User: Which sequence fits this backbone?
């Protein structure tokens, strides 16, 4: 029998209302496979559920009470048998009959009288294909388990116990559980607030893998009272050394020093951020730096000019998943629509979460194509 050293012979279910046809096929295949006969459709449906489940079914079409097409329909409707490959073996030779059989889910169609070499070759091919599919499914299941374990580890490593919510609001809607977006907020020992919004290239596990490193650097330097500029440089240099060359982080960092009445904003390849006062745009902060991790940064960066804001001013940061959300015709949501939303929200004290139904209505879809992240810092 066709077999491997560590497996049992494959089981074939042969269905035909003429016993002599079963005898012919058994003579062709019996020395290679274990044969299970059935002489009508209902017997075939029962035999398909007997252990070991058949590896392949050779099915006649013209049978009384229940023809082969109906047997095939019921096999495909049952989750216990839907994956068993079916080859029709029949005297019907019209193209329409063959097309119907294939549309019902059969993998092949053999016309009678059968030719032994052709039957053996086609059975062998379909069994090999099924075995390959089962191998791929098993490997995919193993990969899913591995991914879930890694995702769990990454998520636990990314949990930030220093996210200071006071005077910071945020909207976070990731495409996948492990997002490439980072939202960090904390206070230094001397009372400076530092907020970081980051967006790794891509999304999913590959994008999220650098998150734990950024979280660790952020919390460590925050506790030491380092400046936002030093923190910005350290994250850049560590990502440059430790991550692959095609993985980098677009980021915006905000440092609010209430004691000195100053604000510093560093934008590295992120969309422009907005400074609003009483619901009116006061200033846009554009990107001035390359994404973090691309090149080494020798000195801490500085702003071209310091920002002098007053109590109550709002600083709004966002990732490109918002402005690049597209309508069915391809039109982007864009920065001006976002700005109009932020002006209204900051003026009347609305919720950042109101942006989600607005985006869904614009794009006419429930699932976003990219991560959505928005932070509002009140001075």
Assistant:
């Amino acid at each position: 029998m066709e077999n491997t050293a560590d497996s049992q012979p494959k089981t074939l279910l042969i269905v035909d209302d003429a016993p002599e046809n079963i005898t012919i096929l058994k003579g062709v295949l019996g020395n290679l496979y274990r044969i299970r006969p059935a002489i009508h459709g209902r017997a075939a449906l029962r035999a398909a559920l007997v252990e070991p489940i058949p590896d392949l079914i050779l099915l006649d079409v013209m049978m009384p009470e229940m023809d082969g097409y109906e047997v095939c329909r019921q096999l495909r409707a049952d989750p216990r048998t839907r994956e068993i490959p079916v080859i029709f073996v029949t005297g019907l030779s019209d193209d329409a009959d063959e097309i119907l059989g294939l549309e019902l889910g059969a993998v092949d169609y053999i016309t009678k009288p059968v030719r032994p070499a052709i039957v053996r070759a086609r059975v062998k091919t379909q069994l090999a294909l099924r075995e390959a599919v089962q191998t791929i499914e098993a490997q995919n299941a193993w990969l899913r388990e591995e991914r879930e374990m890694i995702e769990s580890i990454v998520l636990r490593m990314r949990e930030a116990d220093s996210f200071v919510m006071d005077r910071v609001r945020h909207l976070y809607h990731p495409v996948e559980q492990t997002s490439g977006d980072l939202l960090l907020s904390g206070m230094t020992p001397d009372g400076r607030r530092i907020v970081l919004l980051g967006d790794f290239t891509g999304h999913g596990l590959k994008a999220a893998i650098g998150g734990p490193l950024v979280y660790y650097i952020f919390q460590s330097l925050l506790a030491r009272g380092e400046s936002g500029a030093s923190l910005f440089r350290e994250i850049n240099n560590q990502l440059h050394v430790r991550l692959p060359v095609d993985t980098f982080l677009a980021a915006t960092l905000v440092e609010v020093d209430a004691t000195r009445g100053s604000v510093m904003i560093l934008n590295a390849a992120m969309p422009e951020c907005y400074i609003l006062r009483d619901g009116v745009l006061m200033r846009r902060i554009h990107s001035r730096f390359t994404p973090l991790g691309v090149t080494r940064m020798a000195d801490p960066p500085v702003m071209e000019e310091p920002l002098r804001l007053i109590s109550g001013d709002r600083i709004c940061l966002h990732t490109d998943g918002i402005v690049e959300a597209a309508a069915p015709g391809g039109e982007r949501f864009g920065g001006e629509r976002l700005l109009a939303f932020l002006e209204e929200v900051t003026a009347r004290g609305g919720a950042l979460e109101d942006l989600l139904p607005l985006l869904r209505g614009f794009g006419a879809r429930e699932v976003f194509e990219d991560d959505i992240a928005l932070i509002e810092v009140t001075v």
Summary: The chain has two domains: 11-137, 160-378. Residues 245 and 294 are 7 Å apart (CA to CA).
